[in-house]
Amino acid sequence: MDICFVTKDSLNTAWQEKLSKLGKHDLVVFGFNGMGLVSYKKELSGETEYFHDIAKLSKQLSSVVICGCDTDAYGVFRHSVVIADRGKILGVTDMAHAIDESEFVASGSFRVYDTGAGKIGLIVAEDLFFPESARVLTLCDADIIICLFKKLEDFMPQIMLRAGSFSNGVAMALCAQNYACVSDIRGNITVAGGAEIFSTKVKIEKDYHLISSRRRGLYREFNSGY
Hints:
7-stranded mixed β-sheet; 5 helices
């Protein structure tokens, strides 16, 4: 799978100035810089056309385009990711967990999108910190999992990305402000960079681990009490 990461420019800026020169890609991934804040009220009234733009870009590039954004649903704010495939919006995935106090609320559920580039699972921002996020998407047969993060403050996102790809046997990619990376099924970072736009090829492979747990001796079911 040929993936192009856009870690700095907005969707329209990259579209007009740079993407046309890079050739064809199976998947183009923007961070949260891609669209900024999107108001559903303004989108429905035609005042803004962010979703139309991402659909149009995916059609022009004949690619799957993924872009992070903050969404305003009539005063309810969420971290979200939009995915479009060859001219059609496939859906919007919202962050499923809220950590500590924030104006952004948790919502939605996990989903794997069947696209022309393969089955793509989406993880939104801090959902990466919860192991069940990657697990659910893997069990739903994702070929690759894409995580969009706002800005990396430490190495925890990379650690969780590597752990998720290793434990679930699926390649995972992370795109954030000024940084993107890919982890293979062995948990190794195969490519990482901070360029505004760069592309890489990701080998789609899966490795299902057989896991057993101790059932004798001191083992107890969690609901048996201690």
